[in-house]
Amino acid sequence: MMDQWFSVQAGSPLPGGLARVRALMQHPAFTVKNPNKVRALIGAFAGQNLVNFHAADGSGYRFLADLVIELNGFNPQIASRQLAPLTRWRKYDAARQALMKAELERIRGSGELSSDVFEVVSKSLA
């Protein structure tokens, strides 16, 4: 039930979506160590909330890249799966393409990546 609630909150196109997601990450029912919670909250934000995730300032992309870098350290499979919205950078306008590519490059340069994350990032940038 909580996963569904997280998804609905994260997918809402109302203003302040990223702030709402950040606040929900502090909710007692959420833990970044639980893949189902990550998919419900972060996956819904990046995959369903087109208005807030694709904000013109790139804040949604930065947020997702930061999370992928964090997840890479302890759950590379979920980290690589969360990358999907950034790998579709070619479908967007030039400004958003540049922002998304920059975040993918930042992930690639962030240090020792798992083979899962490295493969997704490298294929996307090729």
Query: How much is the radius of gyration in Å?
Result: 14 Å
Q: Give the overall pLDDT as a whole number.
A: 96
Q: Assign a percent range to the helix content.
A: 55-70%
Q: In this structure, how is the largest beta sheet organized?
A: none
Order of helical and strand elements: HHHHHHHHH
Estimated structural class: mainly alpha
Uncertain parts: none
Number of helices: 9
CA(first)-CA(last) distance:
40 Å
Shape: globular
Quaternary state of this entry equals single chain
Strand content: under 5%
Record field, number of beta strands: 0
Explain what the structure shows.
It is a single chain. Helix content is 69%, strand content 0%. It is built from nine helices and no strands. Helix 1 runs antiparallel to helix 2 (17-24), helix 5 runs parallel beside helix 8 and helix 6 packs parallel to helix 9 (115-125). The chain starts with a helix and ends with a helix. 35% of the residues are buried. The mean pLDDT is 96.
